[in-house]
Design brief:
It is built from 18 helices and 13 strands. The chain has about 475 residues and is α/β, with parallel strands linked by helices. The chain has a domain of about 180 residues: Rossmann fold (3-Layer(aba) Sandwich), CATH 3.40.50. The strands form four sheets. It has a five-stranded parallel β-sheet with strand order 6-3-4-5-13, with helices on both faces. A four-stranded mixed β-sheet has the order 1-2-12-7, sandwiched between helices. A two-stranded parallel sheet has the order 8-11. β4, α5 and β5 form a beta-alpha-beta unit. α2 crosses α3, α3 crosses α8 and α14 crosses α15. The longest helix is centred in the N-terminal third of the chain and has 21 residues.
Amino acid sequence: MRYFSTRGGLAELSFEEILSLFISADEISASDLSALVHATYNDSAWRHPDIAPLQPLTTHQPCRKYVLELFHGPTYAFKDVALQLLGNLFSYFLQRRNKAKSPGEEREKLTVVGATSGDTGSAAIYGLRGKPDVSIFILHPKGRVSPVQEAQMTTVTDENVHNIAVKGTFDDCQDIVKALFADTAFNAKHHLGAVNSINWARILAQTVYYFLSYFAIRRTLPIDAELQFIAIMPSAMGLPMAKLVIATNANDILTRFWKTGRYEKVDSDSSSAAVGGVVETLSPAMDILVSSNFERLLWYLAFENVQNTNPGGDLREKACQTVKDWMDNVKSVGRIVVPDSVLEVARRDFTAERVDDNQIRQTIREYYTSTPKSYTADPHTAVGLHVAGTLSPPPNTVQIILSTAHPAKFSEAVTSALAGVPGFDFDAVLPEAFKTLLTMERRVIDVERPDVELVKGVVEQFAVM
C-alpha cells in the first residue's frame, strides 16, 4: 500500500492520476491506463464530468454538509464507479493474454461470479455484457432486491449474462460465491473472477472518490477544516479525516459491534420476520449481516492488536489465523466477542449508529421539504443523512454523506416518505431509462434453495468453455 501526502500539488490530481499512484506502469502502461479510464468515464457512459460530484446541502457559506453523489454511472448506483472500470480491466487483460497466444492455441476465458443485494449485480453486468471470452453469473436473493434493481439485472439478455435468483438472503448468496472460489478444482476449470469486494481493483477504484472529494473541499474551504465521512482504506493511505461514521439500518450488526465488541448475526431484538437473521427494510442494499469489507477490517484490527500485545514472529500470519478463527466462529455459532484491546482500536477510527425505517422516511421528507435547498434522497442516503444529523462534530468539521444510489431505484421508499407533500411528482425524479424498464423482456434462472451444488450446475451448463 502506498502512502502519500495530501498537501501541495496533489490537490489538483484527477481520477486517473490518483489511480496511477497504485498501478505499476509495468502492469498497465500510462497510455493504456488513460485509455481505460476514458473508456469507462467518458461523456457517453457517465452523466457528470466530475464522476462523483459534491452537492452542498445548504446555501450559506462556508457549507459544512455535502452529499457525495456516486450514482452518475449507467446503472445509477455507486457500484458503477468501480465495476465499469473493472469490466474494462478484465477485458484488457484477457485481450492482451489471448493476443500473445500462438495460432491454434486455446483462448483464455473468464467466468465471473458475484453476489448482490441489488446494485453490485447490475453494475457488474453492465460492465461485462457482450464482452468476448467472459461469462458472468450474478446471484441475488429472490424477492429481496428492489423492482428496479431486479429489472436492471434481468433485462440484460446478452448471451454471456446469467442471473441466478436464490431463495434465501444476500449472505446465502455471498457464502455460495466464497465456496465456489474455495473449490480449487472448480475454480481451475472455469477460471473464476470476482466482482465483490474481495477484488482489490474494486476497492481501489472506490477509494479514489474519497480523495477527490477531499481535494474538492480543500479548494474551497480553510485548511483547518476537518472532513467527516458518513458511509480504513482512505485514512490508511494518508487521507486526513475525522472518524469514519458507519451508518446502518435495522440490520445493525456493525453498530452493535462498535457498541459492545460482539459481532453476532442475531440478537434478542431481531424481528421474528427476519430470514436468516436479516430484516427486510426500506434500504435493501444494506440488508446484510456478514460483509467481506468488515472481514478485511477485522484483519487490520487483528494485525494492530498482535503488534501491541504479541510482538515477534510472523505478525501477518498471526493476524490471518486470528481472523480465520473469528470468521469460523461466526459461521459455526453465529457470533464472536473480540478482546477489549481490539474494540479500543476499532473505536479509535470508527463510530457507528443505527437508523430504522421510520427515521428513513422522516429524513427523506425533511430534506425534500428543506428550504431554500431541497434534496431528494434515496433510502440509503437517508440513513447517512439521519446519522449525520445526530452527531455533534467540532465547528470546523465538514460532513460528507456518501449517496450510493439514485432515488428512482427505490420508488416505494421515496413515494411513501413523500406521500402528500405538495408539488412532489415521482415522474419528475424518474430517469427516462427507467420508464420502460419494468416492462422489458427478462431472463433469470431460479434456484430453489441456497445450495452451492445447484449453482455449480448452472455455471457448468452456461459458462463459455
